[in-house]
Amino acid sequence: MIDPWLLLAFLPAALALNLTPGADMIFCLGQGLRAGPVPAMAASAGIALGSLIHAALAALGVSALVAAAPWLFDVIRWVGVGYLLWLALGALRQGRMQAKGRPMSAPRAFREGLIVNLSNPKVILFVLAFLPQFADPARALLPQFLVMGCIMGIGGLFINGAVGVFAGGLGRRMAGSPRFARGLGLATAAIFTALAARLAILERV
After folding, report:
1. 95 belongs to a structural domain
2. Domain total in the chain
3. pTM of this prediction?
4. N or C: which terminus of the chain carries fewer CB neighbours within 10 A?
């Protein structure tokens, strides 16, 4: 299904990629502060599933279509910007709700992580450029890309999840005070707004 030597070369590259701070890690950090450890881990799981979907789309050629169509790239990008800004607004409301003892559900956090990951066109283009370097063109691409997508997703699940859980534990300890809860809502909203701004100014490569 996949060349063992190529797989051995891919493992350290994928680990280095997962350890590099990026939008997914920052998003999980924000979710941890916003909602706590369990939703943060659920958001990381949503991002991991998104990585697998991106890998499958790259193998099927959909990512190549996005890379070749500037307007489609921009549509996906602005959907992501809008969704992140919506999450920023939700974080402000969540800060007030935390003060009243209303936590976010894990399924909702999972859905948010998945949507944010899928609506980032830079991830689509990165997967399209990264995975083929470790694939054997003489073999079927879909199984190879799915294996590599799983490896990336599992690594990201634990690393991004650990960041979110740490932030969630800190946030939960501080959120007992309504003032701190509102402050955490403001901080998380700022993180999501910064991610939206980052996505908005990204240029297609």
Report:
1. yes
2. 1
3. 0.76
4. C
